[in-house]
Recover the amino acids of this structure.
């Protein structure tokens, strides 16, 4: 059977939080399969601690056809690139190891993507933040909201959880940042810029929600902000220097 979607989940040091996260993702996987959509779970243990690795490997909802990889990328973007290199599906989505999704998340994304223009990148409609803060917001939908690429000079209008045709992520991989060494950060922001520069369309999938756990401290975005990291140079805003 052809694989419609590979869900790439990156785990680090989530510990017991990974249990609820994986249960949420596997429930959505099962719902999609009930509707004839084949979802492959690709679970990346990127420098994961022993507790997180044990929670993932021994989760009671695993059915045995998941792919579990031990990696040591040490960078969110590079870890996702490794996941993409192991995918053979039509579509790929990225997920974090301590978040949650609506139960028909995978199903709705695949159904929407099949009717969308080629190379369209999709995002959940709602982001519900919980943990360190509690609020919800609608993600920017260029189809229905005022939008300019210039917006990305000051903010990334989408969270890091994305859905796209596999060839999009092969054509435009994530940029490694390593903010402590390079001063660059926010790999998902940079990736959004690069895809827009390549003429790709971003859309929101109606009636989908991503539940985003806000850590009190220690997230990659918080670390990048604390280091005053900047987004790497992007074609969206031109080039400079010697050609």
């Amino acid at each position: 059977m052809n694989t419609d979607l590979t869900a790439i989940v990156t785990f680090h040091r989530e510990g017991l939080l990974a249990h609820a996260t994986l249960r949420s993702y596997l429930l959505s996987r099962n719902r999609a399969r009930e509707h004839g959509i084949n979802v492959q779970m690709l679970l990346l243990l990127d420098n994961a601690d022993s507790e997180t690795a044990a929670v993932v490997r021994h989760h009671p909802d695993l059915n045995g056809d998941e792919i579990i990889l031990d990696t040591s990328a040490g960078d969110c973007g590079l870890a996702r690139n490794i996941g993409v290199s192991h995918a053979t599906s039509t579509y790929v989505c990225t997920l974090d190891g301590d978040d949650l999704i609506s139960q028909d998340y995978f199903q709705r994304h695949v159904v929407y993507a099949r009717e969308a223009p080629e190379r369209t990148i999709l995002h959940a409609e709602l982001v519900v933040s919980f943990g360190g803060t509690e609020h919800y917001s609608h993600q920017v939908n260029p189809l229905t909201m005022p939008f300019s690429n210039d917006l990305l000079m000051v903010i990334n209008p989408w969270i890091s959880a994305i859905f796209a045709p596999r060839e999009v992520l092969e054509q435009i991989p994530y940029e490694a940042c390593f903010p402590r060494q390079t001063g660059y950060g926010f790999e998902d922001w940079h990736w959004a810029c690069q895809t827009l520069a390549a003429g790709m369309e971003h859309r929101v999938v109606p009636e989908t929600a991503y539940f985003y756990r806000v850590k009190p401290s220690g997230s990659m975005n918080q670390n990048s902000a604390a280091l005053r990291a900047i987004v790497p140079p992007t074609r969206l805003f031109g080039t400079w220097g010697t050609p």
Q: What stands out?
A: The mean pLDDT is 93. Strands lie at 5-11, 39-46, 67-71, 91-96, 100-101, 121-131, 135-138, 163-165, 202-214.
